[in-house]
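Hi V.,

You were right to ask for the full record rather than a summary. Here it is.
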Amino acid sequence: MNDERANICAGVPQVVVGMGDLRTSADPDVTLITHALGSCLGIAIYDPLRHVGGLLHAMLPDSTIDPRKAAENPYMFIDSGVPRLFRDCYALGADKARLIVKVAGGATCKANTEGDFFRIGERNFIALRKLLWRNNVLIKAQDVGGFQSRTMWLELATGEVTLKIAGVNRRL
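Predicted structure:
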C-alpha cells in the first residue's frame, strides 16, 4: 500500500472479498476490498444516503455452464451474483434509485488478444452491461479491459472506490 492508501484506510477495518465472493455492509467504518481482478469483475454498488454498499468479485458470465457450481456459489457468476448483490444491499436499506455502480477488471489474459480464445474478461463485462441495462441500472464509472490485474476498495463512509493497478492507486 502506498502512503495515500494507508492514510485512507488508517484505523478502518477492511473486509476482504475473495474470488467468487460477495460482501455487503451498512457500517460506514468498513472498507470492502478485493484483489486479483484479472478477467474477473469487481462490481461495487453504494447508496450514499444510507452508507450501504457491496462488492462482488465475479469470475464468469453465465451460471448455466455449471448449474451445480452456481447452486453452491452463485457469486462466481455475473448472472446469479449481481442480483444477489443488489438484493443483499436492498435488505440493508439501500434504494435502487440512489445506487451508484462502479466496475473494474475484465482484463484479457494474454497480451495477444488473438490468443485469448475464451475472452472471459470481455464476456463478463458484456454480461454485466446487458443485465444492468435490462434492469434500468447505469454504470457510473468503470475501468475494464487491458492486460493488468487490479485491486479494488469500496469505502462505505464515502462511497469512494479506489483501484490499484501496477502499483499505482487512483480513484474510480
